[in-house]
Amino acid sequence: MVKHPELAGKINNNGIEIEGESGNFIIQVPSVALTDELSGTFDYVLIATKADGLVEAARGMLPFLHLNSRVVSMQNGICEEMLADVVGGNRTIGCVVGFGGTMHEPGRVEMTSGGELIIGNWKRERDEELEGLAHILDHVVETRVSGEIFQELYSKLIINACVTTLGAICGQYLGDMLANRNNRNLFIEVIREAVAVGNAMEIKIPPGAAGKLDYYKFLAPGILSGIKRHLTIRVIGMKYRKLRSSSLQSLERGRKTEVKNYNGYIASKGKELGVATPVNKQLTHMVEEIEQGKRQINPENFKEITSLT
After folding, report:
1. Bigger pLDDT: 125 vs 120
2. Range with the lowest mean pLDDT among 99-103, 159-163, 266-270?
3. Helix-helix angle 181-200:263-273, to 10 degrees
C-alpha cells in the first residue's frame, strides 16, 4: 500500500524500476493508495514506512488481519513495542534490513549495497509462521531468523546512528564523509557511547555492517587500536562509498528524519541508565535543528561537536 494515488497509478502502469546491486529490472507490483481498496485478510503484512508512520499504518491494517496474521516492522530503529501495542505481541515480527537503497524518483530506486534481512518474533520464541516468512523473503534477499531480534535491531541502530545521522548533517556520500578523520572520530564516539548503553542494558550486541564490524573488538584498547579503528572505518567508507543517508533524503524532501529512533534512542536510554552520551545528544539536536530550518546541512556542522574524548 502507498499513500499517494499518483504513485500507485504509476506503479500499476509502469512497475517499479530497480537498479544497482541486485541488477537492473522492472517489477510489476499491484498497488493501492487507500486501505478502502483492499479486501479479505492477509497472512503477512510488511510495514515499510518511516518510524513516525508505523502506528497509523498498523491501525489501518487491523481490519485485514486474521488471528494468525504476522505484521513485520521494517523500520530503522526499535519500533516493535509500538507495533505490538497496535496489533498484539503475538503478531509482531521485528526485521533488520541490511541492504542500502536510494529513491532517485518515485517509482525508481537503486539498491546501493547488498545485505541480508534478519527477522525474529518479538519477545517470543520462533515458530512455523516465522520460518514460512523467511522462506518467502529468501526470494528477495537472503533472510536469517534470529532468536534475539532486539540485539540485532540495536546493532543496526548503531550503524544508522553513525552512517545515517552523520550523512544527514553533512550532506555527503558515505565514502566522502569517512575520508575525513574528524568525521571518523565522531563515528567512533557514537559507537563507544552506544556500546556503553548496551552494556548497561546487559545485552550482547552482535556485529554490525553485515557482520563485519565487531563493536567490542573495534573498541578494544591497545597501542595500535586507534589506527585499526580508523582503517576499519575507511574500508567501510570505500566499500559503501555510494551510500547516501536515508535521513538526508528525507530532509531534502522536506520531511522529518528518524534521528529520535537512532541517536535519540541511545541518548534516552543512556539517561535512563545513567550512561553519558554527549555526542549522540548533540547529533540528535543538530538534526532536529535542520528539520526546523534553524541549521543548514553542511560538513562544517561537525566542528561544533565539543565532547569528543
Report:
1. 120
2. 99-103
3. 40
Grid coordinates representing 229 are: 579503528
Strand pairing category for 25-27 and 16-20: antiparallel
pLDDT band at 309 (very low <50, low <70, confident <90, very high): very low
Q: Which three cell numbers stand for residue 164?
A: 545515517
The pLDDT value recorded for residue 3 is 62
Helix (H) / strand (E) containing 215: helix 215-218
Domain boundary among 147, 179, 196: 147
Residues 125, 271: Cα–Cα separation, whole Å: 30
Amino acid letter at 74? M
pTM of the model: 0.89
> CA 110: distance to chain centroid?
16
The answer to whether 257 and 251 have CB atoms below 8 angstroms apart is yes
Considering the domain boundaries, does residue 221 fall inside one? yes
Query: Of 275, 220, 117, 175, whose CA–CA distance to 166 is shortest?
Result: 175
Instruction: Summarize the confidence of residues 245-258 as an average pLDDT.
Output: 90
Cβ count within 10 A of residue 149? 25
Task: Print the domain residue range for 19.
Answer: 5-147
Residue 77, helix vs strand vs coil: coil
State the DSSP H helix or E strand holding residue 42, giving kind and residue range, or none if neither: strand 42-47
Q: What is the pLDDT of residues 132-143, one digit of tens each?
A: 999 999 998 999
> Where residue 170 sits, what CATH number does that domain have?
1.10.1040.10
- Which among 284, 261, 203 has a CA at the least distance from the CA of 82? 261
Average pLDDT value for residue range 244-260: 90
Q: Which residue has the cell 536515508?
A: 246
Judge if 133 and 166 occupy the same domain. Answer: no
